[in-house]
Amino acid sequence: MEFSENRIHQVFRVSVILKGLHALIEIAGGLLFYFVSTQQILALVNRLTREELVEDPRDFIATHLLAAAQGLTGATESFYAWYLVSHGLIKVVLVVGLLREKLVAYPASLVAMAGFIAYQLYRYSYTHSLGLILLTVFDLIVMVLIWHEWRLLRRHRPVD
Prior knowledge:
This protein is an all-alpha fold. The protein has helices spanning about 5-35, 40-55, 60-70, 75-100, 105-125, 130-155. Helix 1 packs antiparallel against helix 4, helix 1 packs across helix 6 (about 130-155) and helix 5 runs antiparallel to helix 6.
């Protein structure tokens, strides 16, 4: 199945927009970690998982969510706040550059995403999280699309 350049460009734009939305969610999550106390997070997770755990004490999502909340400390909460906000801000800047077809955004995005993927794989070696693998696969697809768009853009732009 062969894709037209127009279809590839549409997939590129949608994937970059999805990365931008994910970046905004990361920023919001980081700000929540910054402004909401560990005790408030634990109380919220307890409230959200209580009924499910009464019904099924081994519920995968509820038990993992509760374990994650119980493992939060002030230091880990500060790290997550910093990590999510900085990661999100970097991605927002890169997404804006890509959507505006700024040439510098393409290699910068490839380098940043390679760094994010390296970190995700490092985290996977400890967590074995399916979510990290899915995110990494999506990031690799987006990197291929960015590379493709960058090649086309350089080929069709006059040299300054």
